[in-house]
Amino acid sequence: MAPKGSSSSNGSESIPMMNLLSTDMLTDMDDSGDEEDDEHERLLSHRPPPHSDPSSILDRPMLRALHSRLLPELLREDYGWKLVYSLINDGASLHTLMRKAMALEPASTKVLVIEDSYSQVFGALICGPLDERRKGYYGTGETCLFSFHNQPPEDITVYHWTQANELFVLSDGEQLAFGGGGGFGIHLDNALDNGVSSPCATFGNDRPIASTEFFKTLNVELFSLKLSRSSSASDNLPDSRFGVGDSEATLEFDV
Length: 255
What we know:
The chain is an alpha+beta fold. It has helices at 23-31, 33-44, 60-70, 87-90, 94-102; strands spanning 6-7, 14-15, 79-86, 109-116, 121-127, 144-148, 156-159, 169-171, 175-178, 186-189, 194-196, 214-227, 250-251. Strands 3, 4, 5, 6, 7, 8, 9, 10, 11, 12 and 13 form an eleven-stranded antiparallel sheet that branches. Strand 1 (6-7) and strand 2 form a beta hairpin. It is globular. The model is unreliable at 1-29, 44-52 and 231-255 (pLDDT under 50).
């Protein structure tokens, strides 16, 4: 369950695991594991069943917030959101998520959205590939993290690259992580069940962006951005969710 060691952005230097997660941190996880597992099982019983809505995490105000805060340049273009992976519909598997991500155009922009077991919503913007065959960190300075506030839910904090290091994305088939230097900004295990969020130098977050440092996932979704077929599709967008269709539906709207 613990993350594997990682290498520098050029893949030439090994970073010891204990530089990323200390022994005390791992011990704390074990000590509190039983109680957290019981609570997690209770919360997971409330996971929504598979459905045909494009998202079970984001409502319209939250999506508008992401569009305006993460993608200011893309707002000048007619881009739509396409759901590529949903834990609820596709199963809890990092391999499945990465397989679907690797089928996309490598240069495409992607948004990973996570809901933890306390309903905190957060994630990452990735401008480039997600590839489970990579060894060591990779990515670009356009990568950033975000976290929604609970009141009001559409308020969002974005954590951009600080230029302190180039530890953007780590994905080797056993883990998916963003950020480094003091800890991972986001780390998910290969079952997409357990996660870690710590202060990290890459993005300058001074606290976890999840509800707690060690969290359990309720849902994970991956979106890609693509040119919309229409720039006036918001009239067809229901207030509650983004519309009805299969999991490959494209979300098109004006902001």
